[in-house]
Amino acid sequence: MPVLASPFAQLDLVRHPEQREDPLQAFDAADEYLLAHLHEQGVGADSRVLVLNDSFGALAASLAPHVRLTSSGDSHLGFIALERNLERNGLAEAPLTFVPASETPQGPFDHVLVRVPKTLALLEEQLIRLHGQLAPGAKVVAAGMIKHLPRAAGDLLEKYIGPMQASLAVKKARLLVASAEQRPAPASPYPSRYRLDKPALTLVNHANVFCREGLDIGTRAFLPHLPQIHHAVRAADLGCGNGVLGIAFALLNPQAELTLVDESYMAVQSAQENWQAALGERPVDIRPDDGLAGQAADSLDLVLCNPPFHQQQVVGDFLAWRMFQQARAALVTGGELWIVGNRHLGYHAKLKRLFRGVEQVAANPKFVVLKATK
């Protein structure tokens, strides 16, 4: 595996979840560029540094022994990767604070290093929350590989932080360096809301929630076919997003005991608020998790899932396949996994490798709803 070499450390890093013979590495040239730039600025043990959206902990693991470090992001998988990479490199005791993106990191910070996320709404909310958290003279430096770095990222830095200058490209990476100015406190456009007719719900969506402005078409295809079960059942909404599947199922099934999990802290925050609005104090377990990795074996009767098809910028079915495996482990014998997926992804064949029975519940020209029985 390639080693991340920077002025701060030489690190052997892995992605999470790990794949056998994974061709992808846990860092890129934008991480290297950020670390080299920060070293040139001169930082010491008293420098207060905030890292945002550090996918697998490359930046935080490099900096933790050298500065007063806070890391914040919206990925629970990213947090697990950070912990594993710290341990892997003998840095488990390195002092750092991790803050989920659903909370505001507390400064003041002298330096902020930002990996520009795929969702620019998340970047905007993070920059808004930096108001009042920057030390005088602070710099906010955003980075990305040029092919993933939209012009709008620089516009957001200028709008919320101060004058911005783009660096030269190095190894197809670029930095956007903004100098903090005194500005009036900005108003955040997040969370956003949209309304459903069936079931009648108004859904809150924090900045990094998938399909924040309206119900995604896969879930729209799934909702009319949710099972109605006339006895107590233990069910999970796996990759719950704003919680709409789990909440709709709970409304249909008053005796059901629900668990909602997602790797996005902002999704979990949205799901918690939406559950409370729709179902009040009805008991539920809503948590950030690595899928159903934290779920006891043979503890669920039913799993609902609208699986993702990407992790950050990487498209593929690895995460979906892993979620199907986790669901099988968590289900009792005879338990069911219900999913919706694009027809072309061929989930029917994949599920047949794990489950004894797979049925098509519904289909339209784009999506299929499948039921797999353990």
From TrEMBL:
Keyword Ligase: no
Enzyme Commission code(s) on record: 2.1.1.174
Sequence ranges assigned to domain Methyltransferase small in this UniProt record: 201-371
Gene3D superfamilies: Vaccinia Virus protein VP39
Protein family: Belongs to the methyltransferase superfamily. RlmG family.
Protein's job: Specifically methylates the guanine in position 1835 (m2G1835) of 23S rRNA.
UniProt name for this protein: Ribosomal RNA large subunit methyltransferase G
